[in-house]
Design brief:
By secondary structure, this protein is mainly alpha-helical. It has two domains: 31-60; 61-276, MetI-like fold, CATH 1.10.3720.10. It is built from eleven helices and no strands. The protein has helices at 29-57, 67-76, 78-112, 114-127, 136-143, 147-171, 175-183, 188-199, 201-225, 231-240, 244-276. It is globular.
Length: 277
Amino acid sequence: MRRHGGTDGSGERPRGASSPRSGARGPAPSARLARAGQAAAVTVALLAAWQAAVWLFALPPFILPGPLRVLAALRDNAGLIAHHAAITAAEVALGLVLGVALGAATAIGLAASPLARALLRPALVATQALPVFALAPILTLWLGYGLASKVLMAVLIIYFPVTSAFFDGLMRTPRGWLDLGRTMGASPRRLMWRVRVPAAVPALASGLRLAAVYAPIGAVIGEWVGAAGGLGYLMLLANGRAKTDLMFAALLVLAALTLALYWAVNRGCDRLTARMA
C-alpha cells in the first residue's frame, strides 16, 4: 500500500507534524497582544508628556490644549466630528480605489508594451517635478467644492507610488519563470496574468501600503483649499474661531482614520501575499 509522506499508516497526520501552510500563518496571539501593549504604553507616555508640558509651561488652551481638554471637545462635538469624518472617509476610500486601479492598470500597460514604456515612463517621472499640492487650487476651480476635487487629489497623490512599485515588480519577474512559460507555449498575455502579476504582488502590496498613508493627506489638502465639509474643513473652521481643542480633536480623528485604513490595507496585503506565495 502506498504511504503518503507526513502521515502514519492510517492516513492521519502525526500530532507533532505541522501542516505545510503553518509557516505562512501570522504571529501568535501572545505576540500580537505584546505589540498592542507596547503601542498602548507608548501612547500613554506621549499623552502624559503632552499634559505635563501644558502644565509645566502654563500654556494657554488656545495655543496648546491638554489631552484632557481635547478629549472633552471630542466628546462634546462627537456628532459634528462624525459627520465630517464620514465625508473625509468617503473621499479617501474613493480616491484609494480609483488611484490603485489606475496605477495598477498603468503599470501593467507599461510592462506589457515597450512602446508605452518609451513614450509614457519619462512623462510620468517628469510630472513628479510638479508638487501635487500645487494642483489643489486648480482642481477646486475646475471641479468645485464638492467630493470630486478631493477624490481626484487623493488619486493624484497615490497614483505614482502605486504605478512605480507595481511596475518594478512586474519587470523583476525571475527570468527562469518566463523562460519556462514560453517553453510551455504560454502567450504574452498568459505570461502576464499567470506569471508576472502573481510574482509582482509583494511589490504591489508595498505600493498599497504607501497609498493607504498618502490618500488621507491628499483628501485633507483638498479640503483645506476649498470644501464644504470634511475633517480638513472642520480644522480650518475651528482654527478661525480659536477653538484649538476642536481642531486637535479633528486631527486626532484623522490620525485614527489613517491608522485604521493602514491596518486594514496591511492586513489585506499580508493575506494576498501569503495566498500568492
